[in-house]
UniProtKB/TrEMBL annotation:
Top-level taxonomic group: Bacteria
PROSITE patterns: HTH_ARAC_FAMILY_2
Keywords: DNA-binding, Membrane, Transcription, Transcription regulation, Transmembrane, Transmembrane helix
The HTH araC/xylS-type domain, residue ranges: 275-376
UniProt cross-references to Pfam families, sorted A to Z: HTH_18
Species, as recorded: Bacteroides faecium
Membrane-spanning residues: 12-30, 42-63, 69-89, 101-120, 126-144, 178-198, 204-220
MF terms in GO: DNA-binding transcription factor activity; sequence-specific DNA binding
UniProt protein name: AraC family transcriptional regulator
Length: 399
């Protein structure tokens, strides 16, 4: 490998990673539910500066064909640990135990020290240590990949259960981030045997460090919808109040003192729920996004069993499909009354987070895609205008 190119890349990467380290250190994260994310950030920041320092040292010492493979393997193992744990903290902070992380970091450090001792003191055994280290690194990547995959799909399932919608599209960036890191980690193995690949490897891992900073900066905005699920953060919802009804359908003292018959109480609750649902419809609260159905039901002040029975008797369906139907009917109205609206705009206005889910549900209910529905409305309006124009011409000619 050309020494000048190597020195330039190491010096440039040292500068960029130092800047990124300062950016990451000054990132302000909200307090609620993100304690482990802040701890992950605090662990990553020193690693940025250590890597920058190592790159700077390499810049001044130049490329050494004996030392560089060992240091690359050592740094790659640490990167795999840090980035995997950071991506896990993004989706399942409760499953990341820092005692385990520090133990693994200690094991990598001991293995790295043993590798360098063999390089300088027991050269006859160095290759044995080196290839054993590569095998251990490959096993490390396999274990981390399995751990992340299981955690990712578990989180997707929990978030979808919480919102009763397909939410994987909003979590895909986490999966993409992990597998990008994995690809760079696999490339590190190739660099050990083909040093010419350094000219591609160094820019790639610097780019990944940049993305990691961006993800930390934008984490709350991207993942605010999932924090109530993964970090036990409370979600604010609108709660209806009524002087005759308290939590879970229990009547207050004035109602109890009247000693109403059970049937009368049932009818009172039924009427109250009917009014609340009508208000929910009138104010179009079904268009609010990221509000799970269970929280909406609780906000009505009725027990889950009473609410389910009422929905079945009155609408013949559960709350979730009922709310979805309201959203889609509102979407059809918006398309008809606002021809200039795009599908993405209507999707957002009616409470959908993903246009793919919106297109699928709309087609299932209306028998056609939103695009075809808009075309049909356009053709209908055009035909109506043509018909009106013909009638006007006839009246003008014969009138």
């Amino acid at each position: 490998m050309d020494v000048k190119i190597y020195e330039f890349m190491m010096g440039a990467s040292a500068f960029v990673i130092t800047v990124l380290g300062f950016m990451l250190a000054t990132t302000i994260l909200p307090k609620d539910g993100l304690e482990k994310l802040r701890k992950a950030r605090n662990i990553l920041v020193p690693s940025y500066f250590v890597l920058a320092l190592l790159s700077l040292v390499c810049c001044f010492t130049g490329y050494d064909r004996c030392i560089e493979p060992a240091s690359t393997l050592f740094v790659a193992s640490f990167q795999a640990l840090l980035f995997t744990m950071s991506m896990l903290v993004f989706i399942r902070p409760g499953e990341v135990r820092w005692s385990t992380v520090f133990r693994q970091a200690g094991a990598i450090t001991v293995a790295g020290i043993a590798l360098f001792i063999s390089l300088f003191c027991f050269t006859d055994y160095y290759l044995w240590f080196f290839y054993t280290g590569i095998a251990a690194y490959i096993i490390q990547l396999i274990i981390y990949t399995r751990k992340f995959t299981l955690a990712y799909y578990k989180t997707v399932q929990e978030v979808e259960d919480y919102y009763d919608e397909d939410e994987e599209s909003r979590l895909t960036w986490v999966k993409t981030g992990f597998y990008s890191a994995l690809a760079i980690g696999v490339m590190a193995i190739s660099v050990l045997f083909f040093p010419i690949l350094y000219k591609f490897f160094v820019p790639l891992y610097v780019l990944y460090y940049s993305f990691m900073v961006m993800w930390f900066v934008n984490y709350y905005r991207r993942m605010k919808f999932a924090i109530p699920v993964i970090a036990d953060a409370p979600l604010e919802v609108k709660v209806y109040t009524n002087p005759t009804e308290t939590d879970f359908g229990e009547t207050d003292k004035s109602v109890k003192e009247d000693k109403e018959e059970p049937e009368t109480i049932f009818l009172t609750k039924e009427q109250l729920l009917k009014e609340r649902l009508q208000k929910y419809i009138d104010e179009k609260e079904y268009c609010e996004k990221d509000i799970p159905s269970s929280i909406v039901v609780d906000s009505f002040g009725m027990s889950q069993s009473f609410f389910r029975q009422y929905m079945k008797d009155s609408y013949g369906m559960d709350f979730r499909p009922w709310r979805k139907e309201l959203r889609l009917r509102e979407a059809s109205r918006l398309f008809a009354e606002n021809p200039g609206y795009t599908i993405e705009e209507v999707c957002e206005l009616v409470g959908y987070n993903n246009s793919g889910n919106f297109n699928r549900d709309f087609k299932k209910m209306m028998g056609m895609t939103p695009k075809n529905y808009c075309k049909q409305i356009y053709l209908k309006d055009t035909n109506a205008e043509l018909k009106a124009s013909v009638n006007f011409n006839k009246n003008s000619r014969w009138g």
